[in-house]
Design goal:
There is one protein chain. The chain is mainly alpha-helical. Helices cover 35% and strands 8% of the residues. The protein has two domains: 73 residues, no CATH class; 61 residues, no CATH class. It is built from four helices and six strands; from the N terminus they run αβααβββαββ.
């Protein structure tokens, strides 16, 4: 009698396992946006990010209709999505350094006076543990660090 119930419950669990799917970075980005729209006002996008900046795909199953076949990573500070594991960590450290620099000096840590100039790692040397291996930029409207060069105005 009890065995039948256990077997039936085991079948139900097997049916509930989400399917592994192939999806692009844009698909995951759309799923994260749908999650953000559906989430309540007290829920941050940081709930999607586990340690190591890996995206918790289990929370996106209702929006992707499955689990991605490869890991995706998200910055905890800027909420940008990446396929590389190190990029979000680098951007998070740079964002914190830029925020601290701006709070102390009141200036943006840019190489030039133009808003599209890359971040000056020399100005941030006291705030960064290591210099990022690629150029980073500050978005002119919200001062968020990004790897994309802002468009000239």
């Amino acid at each position: 009698m009890f065995r039948r119930k256990q077997k039936k419950q085991g079948r139900r669990k097997a049916q509930q396992e989400p399917e592994v799917i192939s999806c692009s970075l844009d698909d995951v980005r759309q799923a994260v946006n749908a999650f953000a729209d559906a989430a309540g006002p007290g829920i941050s996008l940081r709930t999607l990010v586990s340690s190591g900046n890996q995206l918790d795909a289990e929370l996106l199953v209702p929006y992707l209709n499955g689990i991605p076949d490869r890991p995706f990573y998200m910055s905890k500070e800027t909420f940008e999505l990446f396929e590389e594991p190190d990029t979000p960590r680098i951007i998070d450290h740079a964002q914190i350094a830029c925020d601290q620099y701006f709070l102390e000096t009141g200036e943006l840590p840019l190489k030039g006076s133009d808003q599209t100039s890359p971040i000056s790692y020399f100005k941030l040397k006291n705030y960064l543990r290591e210099e990022p291996p690629f150029d980073l930029y500050l978005h002119p409207e919200d001062r968020m660090v990004t790897h994309r060069k802002p468009a000239a105005r």
